[in-house]
Design a protein that fits this description.
The chain is mainly beta. The chain contains 1 helix and 13 strands.
């Protein structure tokens, strides 16, 4: 049922995590790309400024099956923010990477992929509110990924374009 949390065997405690408590350690774990001055750390959070040319990636390009979970807040913005996964070839520019993206926006989840340009897959209605923390979880297994918002499954996506491995990211 959509109200039940999704369990996944790929969540490995200690595999990779960052609580952003230690700014120097976080700077070593994450690579800011684009307007890197728009990324800051404080209050146990990563803050990404208002820019279309900023992303932060971490991990290895050979990662395959994993779970990405982040607590996000869109503030007053009408734009989306979210997680990137199976990312390779990340460069400066909003869509300058190969990989998937799942983001939150007021009232919905945005799903798509980049191959040097943005390619929307779908938008899904979801209980996302301005100025409210939202836990976005994406479970990436094989050729599918499951999307959960605040512990509730909102969709399972089987994209037509297949990226098999890559880093995680935020934008």
């Amino acid at each position: 049922s959509e109200d039940e949390p999704i369990a996944d065997e790929w969540s490995v405690p200690g595999a990779f995590s960052d609580d952003f408590d230690d700014e120097n350690a976080s700077r070593r774990r994450w690579e800011a790309i684009g307007e890197d001055s728009a990324v800051s750390y404080g209050d146990s959070k990563m803050h990404i400024g208002v820019s279309t040319n900023i992303k932060a990636v971490a991990g290895q390009e050979n990662w395959k099956n994993y779970t990405v979970e982040a607590t996000l807040n869109i503030g007053e913005s009408t734009r989306d923010c979210g997680v990137m996964f199976r990312v390779t070839n990340a460069a400066s520019g909003a869509d300058a990477y190969n990989g998937y993206y799942v983001g939150i926006k007021e009232g919905r989840v945005v799903v798509g992929f980049a191959d040097g340009k943005w390619n929307p897959i779908k938008e899904i209605p979801a209980d996302v509110k301005k100025n409210t923390d939202c836990v976005l979880k994406v479970v990436v297994i094989g050729n599918q990924f499951a999307i959960c918002v605040d512990g509730k499954l909102v969709d399972i996506v089987t994209p037509s374009v297949q990226y098999e491995n890559g880093q995680i990211g935020l934008r």
